[in-house]
């Protein structure tokens, strides 16, 4: 909802000056943007924060498949500048109200020679960065066209420290490397599709300069276009755009009028201000739905982690003696450890009802899991047929009697053509049986073959799915999808995505290093919430299956798992462990029960990418605050000031901290809980163990 709007036109209709055009500028506070044509007519831009260069003069442009692109020579035919200052209230989020304040510069360009096609470059300059995109006006010489590649560059002034993952077209699930730009080398990482680009990395990319600037490069409003990767020139420290190709090798098929996503540059000399930026959200369109009261942020448990720790299976039958092709599901023999059975799901429903959690996710409920991972069949799942031991009607009735909702799971095995054919029936099935949220999955190579998870075809699928679920008043949480770009403003039913290396990797790989969760907020979460699945209490996984989980563990302390509910923002948070793990630590589980998932205010108190993060959030519609503090592999002492609390009010602080001798590797389950009265004049000293953290609830004391 718009609360205020001020638009002032500053200039319009400037005459064309071709290559002799004087530089055009836009500025807000300390951030300034300069557009210019090079001597040979190529469009360029540069960005500064005060006197410090953020992006040196860098190339703009697009290469079209017909060889007549917009990479120069071009001429300027006019420009406009306007100021916008408005505010809006998100359906859910980290703050109650967001200010959208920017100065916009629109530059009109034209090819000086035939066919003389036109292109606009639109810049928006905010107090904390810049967004820009290419716009293609409707014109007779440009109707249907193919973008082969972008020429966008980000020329950095120095050899910054970078927090990066490889530019895999099909996966975001990597641990982060922290190196200088000159040291970026993604080979021989697999399954990355590197081809000739040995230094291709993903966005969001977090950078830190030696002179104290924090720079984040990403994109906003990714619609009808492939995701942007970045090629790194390790000698000049230049980054150049690399669009994910389609099956044909081209990047995007478009029809004018059209525009690209926004390229975003967030900059500050303070790390907390980067995390507080709303630039990416502000570059997205308002919601498309007439009503949103059906969208409910929530916490949930689920039949999920027990499969990851080898205590149960997704598949119903023993796969060793069945022929996978043409399976007759009615003749399958039960394997005896199928997790999604009626009795087990009721156990989770009972736990959710007892502890005030809203939903129960069930994975492995539908036929097809014996066959899914091969990813060579176009049709594996139909999304409406349950296994014999999963009684849909009985569970609907039972969950409703307990005041709990069931959350649907649709693993597509990346056979997206099959899923799209079946979505209408699948969503009707959900509505029939009382499901109002779905977790989708895209494991494997995409069908249609040759398309990539992050290409235009799949980007359009994710957006269509958000639209279609919204039209059915269903919420959606997408896994193995393209990384978010703020589209949860447009589709607020798109509660979260995975799109990164989540907590689950601790169960069946080398795991996530302790620094991982201190980097993700500066990278993956810049574009939107992540379903990270925190809350693991049984840190040493041998406790579930000693033979198959030998040596496996979560690389945090238990207290850090609690802190993640605050530092890893999401409106849909899973209490990811098994009920029996929580029953052993109900005093610590109290924080998961209490912590909110929707917020009126957020304060980033302390932050340094790769090292530590302390975040405070005020629960929606209350005076309660929650604090999460985490560290990397180093033990730290963090002192926080509680000046964000309401003056004159006394609060009870419940502090869930690492216990004596705690560490992520040797003693991860040691924790302590203490309580004290505090006010806005108080400070708290937190002792964080190696790989540890602290979680705090702050509740007003009734007078």
Number of domains: 2
Q: What top-tier CATH class of the largest domain fits best? A: Alpha Beta
| CATH homology group of the largest domain | Aldolase class I
Straight-line N-to-C gap: 36 Å
Uncertain segments: 1-20
Computed CA radius of gyration, to the nearest angstrom: 26 Å
Q: Judging from the principal axes of the Cα atoms, what is the shape?
A: globular
Give a quick account of the main beta sheet: strands, pairing sense, barrel closure. 11 strands, antiparallel
Task: State the CATH architecture of the largest domain.
Answer: Alpha-Beta Barrel
Mean pLDDT: 93
Helix segment tally: 12
Helix content: 10-25%
**Structural class category:** alpha+beta
- For this structure, the CATH topology of the largest domain is TIM Barrel
Number of strands: 37
State which percent range the strand residues make up: 25-35%
How would you explain this protein's 3D organization?
By secondary structure, the protein is α+β, with helices and mostly antiparallel strands. It folds into two domains: 2-282, Beta-galactosidase, Chain A, domain 5; 298-595, TIM Barrel (Alpha-Beta Barrel). It is built from twelve helices and 37 strands. The strands form seven sheets. Strands 1, 7, 8, 9, 10, 13, 14, 16, 17, 21 and 22 form an eleven-stranded antiparallel beta sheet that branches.
Index terms:
single chain, 703 residues, alpha+beta, Beta-galactosidase, Chain A, domain 5, TIM Barrel, 2 domains, eleven-stranded antiparallel β-sheet, seven-stranded parallel β-sheet, 12 helices, 37 strands, globular, disordered N terminus
């Amino acid at each position: 909802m718009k609360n205020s709007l001020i638009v002032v036109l500053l200039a319009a209709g400037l005459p064309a000056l071709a290559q002799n055009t004087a530089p055009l500028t836009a500025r807000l506070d300390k951030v300034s943007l300069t557009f210019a044509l090079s001597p040979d007519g190529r469009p360029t831009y540069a960005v500064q924060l005060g006197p410090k260069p953020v992006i040196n003069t860098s190339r703009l442009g697009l290469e079209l498949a017909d060889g007549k692109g917009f990479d120069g020579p071009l001429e300027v035919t006019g420009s406009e500048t306007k100021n916008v200052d408005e505010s809006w209230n998100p359906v859910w989020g980290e703050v109650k109200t967001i200010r959208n304040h920017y100065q916009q510069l629109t530059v009109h360009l034209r090819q000086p020679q035939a066919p003389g096609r036109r292109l606009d470059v639109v810049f928006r300059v905010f107090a904390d960065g810049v967004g820009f995109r290419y716009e293609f006006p409707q014109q007779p010489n440009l109707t249907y066209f193919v973008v082969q590649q972008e020429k966008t560059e980000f020329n950095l002034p120095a050899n910054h420290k970078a927090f990066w993952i490889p530019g895999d077209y099909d996966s975001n699930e990597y641990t982060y490397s922290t190196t200088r730009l000159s040291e970026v080398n993604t080979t021989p990482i697999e399954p990355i599709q590197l081809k000739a680009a040995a230094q291709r990395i993903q966005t969001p990319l977090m950078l830190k300069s030696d002179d104290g600037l924090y720079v984040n490069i990403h994109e906003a409003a990714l619609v009808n276009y492939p995701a942007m990767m970045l090629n790194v020139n390790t000698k000049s420290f230049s980054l150049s755009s690399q669009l994910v190709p389609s099956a044909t090798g081209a990047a995007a098929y478009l029809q004018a009028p059209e525009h690209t996503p926004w390229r975003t540059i967030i900059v500050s000399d303070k790390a907390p201000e980067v995390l507080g930026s709303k630039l990416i959200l502000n570059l997205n369109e308002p919601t498309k739905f007439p009503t949103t009261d059906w969208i409910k942020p929530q916490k949930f448990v689920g039949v999920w982690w027990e499969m990851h720790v080898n205590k149960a299976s997704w598949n119903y039958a023993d796969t060793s003696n069945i022929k996978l092709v043409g399976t007759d599901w009615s003749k399958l023999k039960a394997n005896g450890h199928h997790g999604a059975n009626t009795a087990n799901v009721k156990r989770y429903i009972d736990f959710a009802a007892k502890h005030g959690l809203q939903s129960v996710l069930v994975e492995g409920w539908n036929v097809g899991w014996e066959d899914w991972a091969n990813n060579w069949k176009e049709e594996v799942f139909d999304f409406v047929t349950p296994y014999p031991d999963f009684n849909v009607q009985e569970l609907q009735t039972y969950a409703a009697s307990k005041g709990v909702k069931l959350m649907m799971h649709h693993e597509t095995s990346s056979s997206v053509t099959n899923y799209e054919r079946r979505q209408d029936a699948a969503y009707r099935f959900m509505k029939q049986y009382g499901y109002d949220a779905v977790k989708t999955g895209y494991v494997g190579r995409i069908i249609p073959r040759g398309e990539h998870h992050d290409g235009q075809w799949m980007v359009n699928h994710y957006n269509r799915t958000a639209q279609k679920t919204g039209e059915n008043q269903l919420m959606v949480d997408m896994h193995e999808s393209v990384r978010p770009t703020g589209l949860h403003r447009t589709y607020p039913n798109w509660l979260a995505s995975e799109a990164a290396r989540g907590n689950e990797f601790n169960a069946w790989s080398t795991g996530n290093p302790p620094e991982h969760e201190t980097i993700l907020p500066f990278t993956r979460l810049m574009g939107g919430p992540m379903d990270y699945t925190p809350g693991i209490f049984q840190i040493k996984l041998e406790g579930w299956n000693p033979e198959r989980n030998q040596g496996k563990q979560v690389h945090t302390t238990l207290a850090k798992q609690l802190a993640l509910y605050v530092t890893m923002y999401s409106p849909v948070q899973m209490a990811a462990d098994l009920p029996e793990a929580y029953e052993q630590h109900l005093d610590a589980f109290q924080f998961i029960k209490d912590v909110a998932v929707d917020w009126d205010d957020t304060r980033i108190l302390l932050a340094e990418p790769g090292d530590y993060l302390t975040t405070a959030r005020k629960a929606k519609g209350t005076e309660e605050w929650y604090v999460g503090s985490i560290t990397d592999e180093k033990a730290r002492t963090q002192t926080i000031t509680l000046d964000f609390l309401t003056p004159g009010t006394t609060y009870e602080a419940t502090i869930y901290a690492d216990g004596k001798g705690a560490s992520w590797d040797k003693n991860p389950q040691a924790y302590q809980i203490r309580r004290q009265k505090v006010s806005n004049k108080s400070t708290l000293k937190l002792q964080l163990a190696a790989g540890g953290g602290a979680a705090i609830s702050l509740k007003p004391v009734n007078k």
